[in-house]
Amino acid sequence: MRAAVLHETGQEKLEILDDIETVGFGPGKVRIRVRATGLCHSDLSAMNGVLPQPAPFIPGHEGAGEIVDVGDGVTGLAQGDRVLLCWLPACGACPACKRGQTQLCLAGFMNAGTPNFKRPGGDVFGFAGTGTFAEEVVVDAGCAVPIPDDVPFDIAALIGCGVTTGLGAAINTADVAAGSSVAVIGCGGVGISAIQGARLKGAAQIVAVDPVASRREAALTFGATEAVAPDELADAKQRITAGEGFDYVFEVVGKSATARIAYETTRRGGTLCVVGAGAMDDHLQLNMFELFFDEKRILPSMYGGGDVLTSYERAIALWRAGRIDLAGLITHRVQLAEVNEALDQMRTGVALRTCIEI
Predict the structure, then answer these.
(1) H/E run at residue 318
(2) Per-residue model confidence as pLDDT tens digits over 286-322
(3) CA dihedral angle for residue 83, residue 137, residue 155, residue 199, rounded to 10 degrees
(4) Which residues sit opposite 227 in a β-bridge?
(5) What's the rounded Cα separation, in Å, for the pair 69 and 320?
(6) Which pTM does this prediction carry?
(7) Would you say 173 and 104 are in contact if contact means Cβ atoms under 8 Å apart?
(8) What's the distance, Cα to Cα, between the start and end of the chain in Å?
(9) 262: helix, coil or strand?
């Protein structure tokens, strides 16, 4: 089986190998033939060590495909079913799940430390317990979420991570108020999805902030009312809010420097929503006086801040109704053998989302 493998954390390129085997199939598991997968910035963050992930590993966690085999005890899934992969399945039994915060379930994270591939040289992990840069994956049955026949694999793959994360940040976590002002810092696939979520919620002004001109231009087609480079944000704050700051600011980069800028761009009593996944040693500094005096809400958003199965259904319904544009998020397409081109497209920012067809 073919797959794209990162041998050591810190390497910039993946190697396409054809001697990979899936492992772990059995009771409670399903085997999925991957048809499409998106490249998410979290994959790059795992490759460069920002996000913890044992190596060697196969990146990819935003995927969709067909079930080719079902283990004993699995119900509700059958061979031939079309599914998207949920990289953070809810166990349904832990305290977080019982509270209704299924996006905080830790059961899925435990899968990241168990190899689900092997090759003659030894074990190979799948990023976030999945590893969709491969022709097949074996995952817990809870990771396989059936999709309707009218949802293409590439669209379903995006819903599996980036779309759910961005839409959910605006709709679930921040709960953007109609008529409000919004700034979104970082306008890749997740940031654009946050923009679409803010538009759905009725935000009056949505300012997209990104250093890449093509992303700024794209943001305007997805609902942003204005798009500026980072060094123009202060001027936009002054013009649009009379210097007070935006009602909602979304940080979709995952760096303390941009989170600090986002905090300063949020009005007193406003909401800073942290969506970007950053490093454990990158610390955001706030002094105790400003934290108390400004009364700004700081809301981290994990995987869209809500039940992911409900979020998937909502995204599909909105896409069917033409209320959100998902096909437009896919700006580039490559085959698995061209995966390193996709990495370059992500690093340079020319792509919103690259679909890897497998």
Answers:
(1) helix 308-320
(2) 999 999 999 999 999 999 999 999 999 999 999 999 9
(3) 100
(4) 208
(5) 30
(6) 0.96
(7) no
(8) 11
(9) helix
